[in-house]
């Protein structure tokens, strides 16, 4: 992020893949609802750090977990977040993005596309830097 994205050398684009049914949908919705208020990355961080809790929840418990996470995000309008999550406002766009990803053969995360290469799975900084530097030439 610091070496490539923030200085504008590369653009980081996060695309959801709904590969874990309800858990993926609800976690992606939570991030998207927070994102509507400019808080995508703080919510994403909470979701990533608490994957085991997300994996262990379902149904109403999963929704309540997302609402609990929202309370930890500063500057988030809790009522607007709850309405977005409960009304599933972002779900159609997330499902459309997931469908588009699948047409491109992407069914899991993380996937890094650094033209013209596609890196599958977690990568070391050195591996990513080498591919980015090659692409920047």
Your description of this structure?
The protein is mainly alpha-helical and 137 residues long. It has a domain at 21-89. It is 58% helix and 6% strand. Helix 1 packs antiparallel against helix 5 and helix 4 packs antiparallel against helix 5. The longest helix has 15 residues, at 21-35. The model has no long low-confidence stretch (mean pLDDT 94).
Short recap of the structure:
This protein has helices at residues 21-35, 40-49, 51-56, 59-71, 78-87, 91-103, 125-136; strands at residues 111-114, 117-120.
The total beta strand count reads 2
Class by alpha and beta content: mainly alpha
- State mean pLDDT (0 to 100 scale): 94
Strand order of the largest sheet: 1-2
Oligomer: single chain
Strand content: 5-15%
- Helical fraction: 55-70%
Radius of gyration: 16 Å
Question: In whole angstroms, how far apart are the ends?
Answer: 19 Å
Shape: globular
Helical segment count: 7
Q: Stretches where pLDDT falls below 50 for ≥5 residues?
A: none
Could you give the order of the helices and strands?
A: HHHHHHEEH
Largest sheet: 2 strands, antiparallel
Question: How are the SSEs placed, and which strands pair?
Answer:
Layout lengths: L20 H15 L4 H10 L1 H6 L2 H13 L6 H10 L3 H13 L7 E4 L2 E4 L4 H12 L1
Antiparallel strand pairs: 1-2
Keywords:
mainly alpha, two-stranded antiparallel ribbon, single chain, 137 residues
């Amino acid at each position: 992020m610091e070496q490539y994205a923030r200085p504008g050398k590369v653009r980081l684009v996060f695309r959801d893949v709904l590969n874990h049914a309800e858990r993926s949908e609800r976690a992606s919705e939570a991030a998207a609802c927070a994102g509507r208020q400019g808080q995508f990355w703080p919510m994403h961080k909470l979701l990533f750090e608490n994957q085991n809790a997300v994996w262990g929840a379902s149904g109403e418990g999963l929704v309540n977990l997302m609402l609990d996470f929202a309370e930890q995000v500063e500057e988030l309008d809790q009522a607007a977040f709850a309405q977005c999550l409960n009304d599933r406002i972002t779900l159609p766009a997330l499902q459309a993005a997931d469908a588009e990803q699948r047409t491109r053969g992407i069914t899991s995360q993380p996937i890094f596309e650094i033209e013209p290469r596609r890196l599958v799975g977690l990568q070391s900084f050195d591996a990513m830097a080498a591919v980015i530097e090659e692409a920047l030439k």
